Every structure is written in C-alpha cells, then in structure tokens.
Amino acid sequence: MNIRLEKTEDYREVENLTREAFWNVYRPGCTEHYVLNQYRTNPDFIPELDFVMEDDCKIIGHVMFSKAEIILDDGTSFLSWTFGPISVHPDYKRKGYGLKLLQYALEKAKKMGIGLLQMEGNIEFYKHAGFDLASKLKIHYHAEPRESDVPYFLAQELIPGYWGNREGTYCPPKGYFVADENPEAFEVYEATFPKKEKAFQEGQLPQFCQSCGMPLTKNEDCGTNADGSINFDYCQYCYKDGKFLQEMTMEEMIEHCSQFVDEVNKNMPQPMTKEEYKQMMQGFFPMLKRWKR
After folding, report:
1. Where in the sequence is the domain holding 235, given as residue range(s)?
2. Largest Cα–Cα distance of the chain, in whole Å?
3. Is the pTM for the entire model greater than 0.70?
4. DSSP codes joined into one string, 81-112
5. Band (143; pLDDT cuts 50, 70, 90)
6. What total of structural domains would you count in the chain?
7. Are residues 153 and 116 in the same domain?
C-alpha cells in the first residue's frame, strides 16, 4: 500500500474512481468527479494535500483539501479549511483504507499549519479520525438553524487553540457547487464517461425538487428531459420534456406553494401557519438550483 501526491497523468483515472465511489450513494448519480475536475485550477485547491492511495500500482483511493472560511458573529472572516471528496474504490470499501488515507492526510495538513477543518459526512465513520459535531465548537452550518446540532456537519481542531472559542457560521466553498452553477458544462463532461444508470436507493440524502422543494423519493415524482428520460432535479409538476411548466419568480413560487401548507403539516411534528411556512421557504428556496443567485 502506497500513498503519494496525485500526478497530472492520474487525473482521468482519479476522476473515474471518484465517480465509481459516489455513484447513487448520496443522490441519483453524482457530481463529485466534476467538482474534482474543476477544483484543480481553483485558487482554494491545496495541491500539497492532493493524495492518491495505490495498491499494486492501481489507484484505489483519493482525497483533496480546500481553503474555506467561517464568518464570525462580528462579521469578519476567519481562515479555515475543508476536504473532500474522499474516494475509495467500491472493491476496497469497509476495509479500513479510507481511514488510513484520511489519517495520513490529516497529519500532513497539521504539519502545514492547518488548524481547523469542517466537513459534511457520517460521524460514525469520521469520529475515528477525530471529528465531532461542529456545533460543539460553536461553528454553525449556513443551511440549518443556529441552535441545531447538525448530525452531518463535523469539525476538528487539528492545532489545539487555533479556533480560540470563537463563534461563527460556515458555508462550503463555492467550488463545491460548480455542477449546480454550470449544469450544461457538467452534462458535457459527464457524457465523456461510460453511461451509468441513476437511481433512488436507501441511504441517500433527502432529494427535493430544485424548483418547488417537493420531496423526490421515486422515479414517478420526477420530471422529464427533452428526450423523455427522467430528470432527477425537478418534479413532475414543475418540469416536463425539458421545460418548466410555469414561468414565475421565486416569490411567486413561494406564494403558490404556501397554499399546500396543510398537506405539509401532515408530516410535521408541529404544524406551521401559512406565514410561518412562507418564511421557512424564503430561507430554503434560494439554495435550490432554479433560484440560486
């Protein structure tokens, strides 16, 4: 087993590895390989922490790191870092290789002076590498209420005292949203790989229509592309044959969706009024692909 820095000639192999590792894991299909492809020219990318793991000269794992920031409660920016995607070939998963690769990378990061890391992931795995809920360090996640102990938002202070008992809010670097911001470019890139079937499966993150926020749990919930194939981003009520079914602003969509608050309340522990529901959507909708600015 060997861990080394990634080389230019490794790029395509590593991107294919990343695609295989993430396909249908967190959502139907994946975009992590495109994020990696684009990140190598991003100024936030840290080439000194761009590692591959080999077994008998075959690349079986990869991890990359990025600069990030936390906005402190006084409005100032605090330098921090994140990592990912971290990929392990499906044939090597659940055998300890991912943890070994990550622990190696974390030690290198610490020696470089990287003091604080945040990331999104499963605490049951990442706790073995020293991560815990970010809320314990008073680091809040931008897309969740400040008082929440967000179970998937994790952090670790690599250098004791680096964070210094501050408090602030973290948002993932813009580079991680490149596929959402450039969907056409992503589709062109994705077409260069062998075709794979997208599918809903158990254990994925909740999927929502990127126009109205409706939960997507099965193929029948989804809209269709111009060629009749399933569109996993939008629901059947918003998107058909490659086109939106309604031309409206985000505010008009929120007003439209608010009339279904009684239906939403059937699955809520505490019912919301129409105005409370609209207020919640005002915070949620700007994160959806159709309304991102």
Report:
1. 206-287
2. 61
3. yes
4. EEEEEEEE-GGGTTTTHHHHHHHHHHHHHHHT
5. confident
6. 2
7. yes
